């Protein structure tokens, strides 16, 4: 998921898991990645926080920021594409595991 988010928002994939905030663009892309991990992957706020080395309240804030900004049609379109891509990846992994 991280490579897709990094590509869509034109940031280095390593910035998404960096311990520091980095650029505003990278911080926003990280918020998107946390949002997708929570909403699409169904991970708890605590689980997402562990993946991104952030507190669960930071993840909750990220999700609120993304939800608030979905009023922007361009951003909403990007998020819809990412949501479909992540969901397809989850389905593919589940299918593959079922074949074992």
UniProtKB/TrEMBL annotation:
Residues 4-66 form the Chromosomal replication initiator DnaA C-terminal domain. InterPro entries: DnaA_C (IPR013159), Trp_repressor/repl_initiator (IPR010921). CDD domains: Bac_DnaA_C. GO terms for molecular function: ATP binding; sequence-specific DNA binding. It comes from the Bacteria. It holds the Pfam family Bac_DnaA_C. One of its GO terms (biological process) is DNA replication initiation. SMART domains: Bac_DnaA_C. This is Chromosomal replication initiator DnaA C-terminal domain-containing protein. The lineage of its organism: Bacteria, Pseudomonadati, Pseudomonadota, Alphaproteobacteria, Hyphomicrobiales.
């Amino acid at each position: 998921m991280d490579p897709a988010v990094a590509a869509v928002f034109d940031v280095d994939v390593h910035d998404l898991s960096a311990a520091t905030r980095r650029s505003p663009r990278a911080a926003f892309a990280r918020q998107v990645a946390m949002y997708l991990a929570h909403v699409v992957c169904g991970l708890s706020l605590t689980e997402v926080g562990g993946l991104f080395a952030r507190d669960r309240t930071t993840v909750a804030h990220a999700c609120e920021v993304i939800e608030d900004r979905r009023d922007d049609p361009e951003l909403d379109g990007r998020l819809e594409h990412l949501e479909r891509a992540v969901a397809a990846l989850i389905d593919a992994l589940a299918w593959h595991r079922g074949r074992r």
